[in-house]
Specification:
With 247 residues, the protein is of the alpha+beta class. Helix content is 45%, strand content 19%. The chain has one domain (61-246).
């Protein structure tokens, strides 16, 4: 309606002016229409800050195995992921039943363990860790790692490779701590008279740095120190060990 009124007025003007004004009016109308239909520009999303990004966790799986048929603990298998979650399976001399317990390694333990795996460049390496001399009486150790389609197993009974030796020692500490926790749990439930000896064993392992992370034992020792099912001597020993660990 508005357009018709405008063009009626234009009829009174000279033809040249009519053409000129019409052209200007059309350009203005087109410009206005474009602005009306034009989609607003969407800014590209800013890069997400590092602390907000979802880390892609490694799919690596780690395994340590120890076998010596004549030892009291004749077979041990430790399996875990990059977060330290997994399980330990062990067999005792003259027993056919294998025990399996969940495993949750502490960040401090995992830092040492993964650091040694990385130092070995295990999947990329083809190094033979076995020394020229054989020591089968010490038991056979197997290190295994798998990530995606890559996997490798290394077997030896003695090695001069410092990183491989350190990694095996870390897994021994993990095993000793897990087995100690298992034995303490059994003693509390069924064999309370064994608790004093287990406290002595725990103190010995502490003195020789034989546990993977003693801090993980604090909750268990606190429970043990107030458990009236175990002998008083074991409860008092647990309190002394707590003080040593908490220092």
């Amino acid at each position: 309606m508005v357009h018709k009124q405008i063009f009626k007025g234009l009829k009174l003007l000279p033809a040249v002016f009519v053409v000129l004004i019409a052209a200007v009016f059309g350009v203005a109308q087109e410009s206005s229409g474009n602005k009306h239909n034009e989609r607003p520009e969407i800014a590209a999303p800013a890069s997400q800050p590092a602390e907000g990004r979802k880390e892609i966790k490694s799919s690596a799986q780690y395994s340590y195995e120890f076998t010596q048929p004549e030892f009291y603990i004749r077979h041990i298998v430790i399996e875990h992921d990059i977060d330290g979650r997994g399980k330990i399976t062990f067999e005792r001399l003259n027993e056919e039943v294998a025990f399996e317990e969940p495993l949750d390694l502490s960040p401090a333990t995992m830092s040492r363990v993964t650091g040694l795996w990385q130092s070995l460049r295990f999947l990329e390496s083809e190094e033979n860790y076995q020394t020229d001399r054989q020591y089968p009486h010490l038991g056979t150790m197997r290190l295994k790692m798998q990530q995606d389609s890559r996997k490798r197993t290394a077997e030896f009974n003695w090695t001069n490779n410092k990183d491989a030796s350190s990694l095996v020692n870390e897994y021994r500490r993990i095993a000793d701590q897990a087995l100690l926790v298992f034995d303490i749990s059994v003693a509390r439930e069924n064999q309370p008279l064994n608790a004093p000896k287990l406290m002595e064993r725990l103190e010995l392992l502490l003195k020789r740095n034989g546990l993977s992370d003693p801090q993980q034992l604090i909750p268990l020792l606190k429970e043990l120190s107030t458990d009236e099912h175990v002998p008083l001597i074991a409860r008092n020993h647990a309190i002394r060990l707590l003080k040593k660990i908490e220092k």
